[in-house]
Amino acid sequence: MAGAKKSDSASQAPASDLEAYKVDQQIGFFLRQANQRHVAIFSALMGDRLTTTQWAALTKLREIQPTSQNQLGRDTAMDVATIKGVVDRLVARGYVATAPDPQDGRRLILSLTGEGEAAIARNIKTAIAVTDDTLSPLTSGERMMLIELLRKIC
Amino acid sequence: MAGAKKSDSASQAPASDLEAYKVDQQIGFFLRQANQRHVAIFSALMGDRLTTTQWAALTKLREIQPTSQNQLGRDTAMDVATIKGVVDRLVARGYVATAPDPQDGRRLILSLTGEGEAAIARNIKTAIAVTDDTLSPLTSGERMMLIELLRKIC
DNA sequence: TGATATTCATTCGTATACAAACGATATGCG
DNA sequence: CGCATATCGTTTGTATACGAATGAATATCA
Fold it and tell me: Which CATH topology does A25-152 take?
């Protein structure tokens, strides 16, 4: 009975765990830091004060427009509250237009404006450069491997 | 002069780029999503309403205490403004104690309280489980590979 | 049809995340 | 010593990020 592998479920922890655990070697720490570096590269290169999420919303909207706000959020992995803020700012800039859905009174139909299209065209090469810069420490094979591993844990 | 590889610097983009570019296949999108999933797993498993950054600050402080607020921020990859908010909330909970540095009037010395130590001990096993859950879709070899690739792009 | 459930968008509250500006304090060097 | 520089912590403003609650509109199904 004594010396079992797990003590009283989650009440106490053996000193070994305390000693061995290092936050900065956990996957979560690396994911957070890697994302931070990517966002920093994006901010440094991208023009028009566009953020990563704004860019994601813009380019995804280009693919699937016209669509509803929540649908755009789902396709860009954003919460309903988050996508609303992003869309609001894009609308305020004149990049996105909104209209009520005649078929569904709940929906808010989104579409790109000419300015929105132009903003994408103006920055598309930079966006590609951001991806390339972020992956620059890796070989071509490593890049594919990283993408594949990240895809698996998403 | 006409037909150069890059048109007027950053003004226009070829249609090929516009067609080929998919946000949800870029490294930034995967990093953001993978981090989101990790945070979701952390929130679901971890007790005491601890966030990922609060946990990082607590456990790192345990390693290097006593230390200054900005130093803790550097060691946990947090901005000075960010670490301040995190520390403030940990202090409000009684997990962290602050004291002025007798040697340096600018510094705020941080250390763990007994409650802070207890919170770590109480949740350390869960933290390990969070890492394991996040990496559960991967084999042991893939996990090491992912960590290594992320380390390279940090 | 009518009650129930679902979806959509909004709002509120909390928590990162970071740029920028600020005052206070230390440190460096001539 | 005195000044330029750097560091520390704080504050403000903007932008994600998400849980939770809400009201309006739609869908489902007994």
Answer: Arc Repressor Mutant, subunit A (1.10.10)
Structure-token pair, residue A49: 């004060």
Nucleotides of C under 7 A from a protein CB: 7-13, 15-21, 23-27
Q: Is pLDDT of A82 > 50?
A: yes
CATH number of B50-152: 1.10.10.10
Residue among A6, A134, A151 minimizing CB distance to B153: A134
> What are the extents of the domains in chain B?
50-152
Distance from CA of B129 to the nearest CA of A (A): 11
pLDDT of residue A15: 72
pLDDT of A93 higher than 70: yes
User: Which of these ranges, A20-34, A52-66, A120-134, B10-24, has the smallest mean pLDDT?
Assistant: B10-24
> Which of B17, B60, B142 comes nearest A128 by C-beta?
B17
Chain B hits for A26, CB-CB cut-off 8 Å, are 127, 130-131
Per-residue pLDDT of B14-28, as tens digits, reads 777 788 999 999 999
